[in-house]
Amino acid sequence: MILGKLKKQHLYSGESLPEVMVSGLLFLLMAAVLQGAVAFGSSVKIKSESIRKKNAEICRELRETSWTDGNETAVYSFVAISQDESQVGTAKLFQVEVRLGRKEILSGTDQITFYMFGPPEVSGQPETPDPGGEGP
After folding, report:
1. Between 89 and which of 2, 36, 79, 99 could a Cys-Cys bridge form, CB atoms 3.0 to 4.6 Å apart?
2. Claim: this prediction has a pTM higher than 0.85
């Protein structure tokens, strides 16, 4: 009687062929997703390195290129504004007049133009304030 029970258990135990095939297919799908993620990460890393290298070259050329004065000026006025930006003042607190210029850089086949502000034109005063700031 015990032998009959053991034979019945062994007869229906284990995995069936469709279950083994489905589990193998799921394993292969997960391996493909993992391989795709690793390949995508590798290509993003390579692209990021090339962008950083190009930006470093542009910054180096920007430092070495001389500033071209555009013979134009712009006046920027500053007014008070509330913290939540709901109220804007009408009285000018101060204004700054700056010279406009540019730097042109040739990077590979691209010509890049950077528009820049020159120092303010103030007669009889230094172009930069003292490090200590203004006194009371």
Report:
1. 79
2. no
